[in-house]
Amino acid sequence: MVAFLRGCRKHCAVCNQGHLFTRWFTFKQRCPQCDLRFERIEGHWTGDLGINTIVSFGTLLIALIVGFLLSWPDPPGITLFIVAISIAGFVPLVFFPFSKTIWLAIDLIFRPLEPGEVARGYGPQRGESAERPVT
Length: 135
Ligand SMILES: [Zn+2]
Hints:
There is one protein chain. By secondary structure, the protein is mainly alpha-helical. It has one domain (2-110). The chain is built from 3 helices and 2 strands. Strands 1-2 form a two-stranded antiparallel ribbon. The longest helix has 34 residues, at 77-110. The radius of gyration is 20 Å and the shape is elongated. The two termini are 33 Å apart. Zinc ion binds at residues 12, 14-15, 17, 31, 33-34, 36. Keywords: Membrane, Transmembrane, Transmembrane helix. The chain crosses the membrane at residues 49-72, 78-98. Pfam families: DUF983. InterPro entries: DUF983.
């Protein structure tokens, strides 16, 4: 849950580092603090595309339902059309970086860090046992 909340804030899900984007649409290759490679496997970014699509269509659906309910029985077709087009064009662009970091968090929740995937102190390292030996 902590990782997901970090993703919602456009922060690294592992170390909570911000400033992961050089521009709105340009994601850094690695986290500047924990050194996590953001594209963990090939095809990694199809998930954020799915999240962005779900949020965009969800926003569009809610806006249309609210618009119809508030203006019933005489909904303004042109106004609702303009609102729908605006949402369809605007929300995916605004939500783009959030979809990246949220997807990264979800991926880390379902596929935890492999040894050596992050810098020492942020996760398991190669050659180290996940469990401490009993003494
Ligand atoms: Zn990090």
